[in-house]
Design brief:
Length: 333
């Protein structure tokens, strides 16, 4: 696909064109993965963050938010619950919390690795040094999620304070790849100031990086951020970006992210029908879940909760997919 083809897809409002895009992306997904849908259990380990991203509700300047961090024991208990549900991949996500020094993160990873020798451990704890990433890898982490957020320098500077740069984000992603992590990049659809050309750059960046996973979801305003009054990302645009990514990177794992379910009641199923093939049930303790408020209305998605895992499982089957409880390492790309 040349740039014009991609831009046309990004901007089209023609329903037939959009439907045929989704049909093509489903086909691309089915050829590689069939109808299997994989699970990753999400553990939101801290909502403290030293960064101040304009879109994110757990940004440092949000003084309204009560902060929490989970202890190693609490994290292990989340893993235990996930394991009880049959989940084989744990994703530890959090703000960039200085309390979680590289030593502390490595200790937690080692403890999980000790208790669950065959599970996949994924970290999503933001930008760190290559040395830190190496330490976590040695401690037993296998995968790392770090969305690039936007592949345009100019747009990046409109979403983040000046101490954060796309170059550093890219540097981190390349370091993670080099170390041997299965890497997840990704971006939000419909962030303020985003242009179709920015989205084209996101797709081209993914093609270049060839990440094992790509997380794509709509921007959802969070009231206590500078972007609180901006409109949320468009559903169809988000689905188009999932579909384009699937077509151009057929082997990439693509989650139907929680944000999709927030902007549409059947958002998860629509994402699967646009080419996604992963869901991430939330294993975080009920008490802290609403505090991981990266965007508004997140807590209302009770269905992502482990307690209703069965329901989720059945919904996936009802939508014509096949839940697959294997740890589903990325295919060699
Ligand atoms: N500190 C970690 C985790 C960030 S939260 C890191 O830097 O990777 C995980 C993802 O949530 C972010 O990468 C971002 O793309 C998404 N996110 C944050 N705020 C959002 C919002 N308001 N709407 C939609 N997605 C958001």
């Amino acid at each position: 696909m040349n740039d014009d083809d991609i831009l046309k897809i990004i901007t089209t409002e023609n329903n037939d064109d959009i439907e045929s895009l989704f049909a093509e992306s489903r086909k691309a997904r089915d050829e590689v993965y069939g109808k299997r849908v994989f699970f990753r259990g999400l553990i939101e380990m801290t909502n403290y963050c030293k960064n101040d991203c304009y879109y994110c509700g757990i940004r440092r300047s949000n003084k309204k938010l009560m902060r929490y961090r989970l202890s190693c024991e609490e994290i292990l208990a989340c893993c235990q619950r996930g394991n009880g549900l049959g989940i084989k991949t744990f994703v530890l996500q959090g703000g960039e919390d200085p309390f979680f020094t590289s030593g502390r993160v490595a200790t937690i990873v080692s403890a999980i690795r000790h208790d669950f020798p065959n599970h996949a451990i994924t970290l999503s704890v933001g930008e760190r040094t290559q040395k830190d990433y190496e330490l976590f890898f040695k401690a037993g982490a296998n995968r790392f999620l770090l969305r690039h957020e936007t592949a345009s320098h100019e747009h990046y500077s409109k979403l983040h304070p000046s101490n954060m740069t796309l170059n550093n984000r890219k540097k981190c992603l390349l370091a993670l790849k080099k170390i041997g992590y299965q890497v997840g990049a990704g971006f939000m659809a419909g962030t303020p100031f985003q242009t179709p050309e920015n989205l084209l750059a996101d797709i081209r960046f993914l093609e270049e990086l060839q990440p094992e996973m790509a997380g794509i979801g709509p921007f959802i305003p969070q009231a206590d951020t500078p972007f609180g009054a901006y409109p949320q990302g468009n559903l169809i645009l988000s689905l188009k970006m999932i579909a384009l990514t699937r077509i151009l990177l057929p082997q990439t794992l693509i989650p139907a992210v929680t944000a999709m379910s927030v902007i549409a009641p059947n958002g998860r199923e629509l994402a699967l029908d646009a080419g996604a093939n992963v869901v991430m049930p939330n294993l975080s303790p009920i008490a802290t879940r609403k505090l991981y408020a990266i965007y508004n209305n997140k807590a209302s998605t009770a269905e992502e909760a482990a307690e209703t895992f069965r329901l989720l499982y059945e919904k996936i089957i009802k939508s014509g997919y096949m839940p697959d409880m294997s740890r589903a390492d990325a295919l060699a790309v």
